[in-house]
Amino acid sequence: MKGKIIQNWDSVDFKDPKHRKQLSGALQYFLSLPDLFVPEEMEKIKRFKKDRLELRGLLAAAQEFATTADFPASILPLIEKFHAVPLYDNGYEMIFDVRNFSGSARNGFDILDVESGLTFRRILVGDKLDVFQMSGEKARVYFSFYGGALGWHRQLFDDKEYWTIEDNAIAFRNTAYQFRAAVFYALIEAVGAAQNIAWQAHPDGVAAGNRGYLAGRDAATMNAAAQNIILNCANKGYGLTPANATFIVLCPLQLRGRIKQALGYQYDNVQGSPSHVDYKFQQITTTMLTVANTFYVILPKNKLKAGYRMDLTLFSDFDILSYTDTQAGWMRYGGAIGDTEQLQRCATG
Q1: Of 85, 105, 130, which marks where a domain is finished?
Q2: pTM check: above 0.85
Q3: Residue 16: helix, strand or coil by DSSP?
Q4: Less Cβ around it within 10 Å: N or C end of the chain?
């Protein structure tokens, strides 16, 4: 049988210690190589996918499980479609500045809040430049452990139930990375009420029930949120200007269409008409927000930090009393919002 994790399951002899070790390595590779954060440029996505496929090919060859045996060509497309590896939500990685700390031997990282007090002024002939002292504080973000376990009864191997084995592995991996995503989305939702912004009035005074009422008010709310962020963060060294800033609009699935309409709302329903949106926005939709009637306007990166200390790593054991192989998976990561003024929680009513 051809699979996603092992190219040919029929070549695996689970009684062979060498094959069990190779299988464990294949599972580790599969679980620890997620689709990383979505890059801003499509070319990067293509290059990453190409590199990943090459890596998978090299690993499969090293495992010596690849053979020429295959399913009939007529049903291969159906198998691939049915058993495609599901994606998990990683949109938060476009919001947080994600750093890889694997192999760093660190227990966390610092978010610096540094003030230099630096100002420029005219210097008359003979005067000296002022020397300003740097001062500030730092906050420590510690890496926490997260884990789960996956057990396979050896009957699955004895009876060659390879689809079940792979389905469980895929679900296990997706659950692990979905949980990590949930941790970071929860950080966003934990932002205090000081960053709340009311639903703004329609700029053209359109009454409720008329075309463009919701879209106009939502667009005005986005504009007000972006303006607040720019003004609040103007002197924090982010290099932020109305012209170069791109904001993330993070919304729950329930508001996906509504936000999309607001981002495309025009003054007149004709091609080329000016947009109500005054800033650059990029929409991210997720099912992982717990509140369905608000959305967030976010200035990404800067002091929104995430650190990955250990990717999903497997540890194996066989329980002779239950005839079960257990794979325990551990991850370690941490994150923090170092500047809550980079976010605005927007009402929709």
Answers
A1: 85
A2: no
A3: coil
A4: C
